[in-house]
Amino acid sequence: MTVSPARLALLAATGCFGVSVAFAQNFPPPSAALSQPPFAIPPFKNLKVFPKDIARADLLANMKFFAQSLGVRCTYCHVGEEGKPLATYDFASDAKDHKAIAREMIRLADHINHDHLPKILVDPEAKVTCYTCHRGSTKPATQIPPSPAPALPPR
Prior knowledge:
By secondary structure, this protein is mostly helical. Helix content is 45%, strand content 0%.
């Protein structure tokens, strides 16, 4: 069976159209690409502990680490409504006390890591982080470990 050039061109065009439709479905619609990103973009406002020129990825990684270390979400420190888009949050606001406490804790950890640990530890990689004390809880672990269980008397 022979295929005419017209029929071959129609088959090729149909194939190209199918491939282009499938390819286009892998990209977000143009309106989504132009919308505001879910987090703040540089220059960031009201940074008091982090460097003013911190990379967006580094800032987000730090915020995610804080949230995981304390077992909280963004609204614990930032003004915003849970379940709403992050673009609606006021990340620069200092209205929540937890944000001020977090800044002080960052300064404390930095002080320990730079001024104390190098004097007492041989391992330069050892450092104190939020997780060191918080372990996924908003309240840091402050209790001393329990005493060892008394030995059972011999029989």
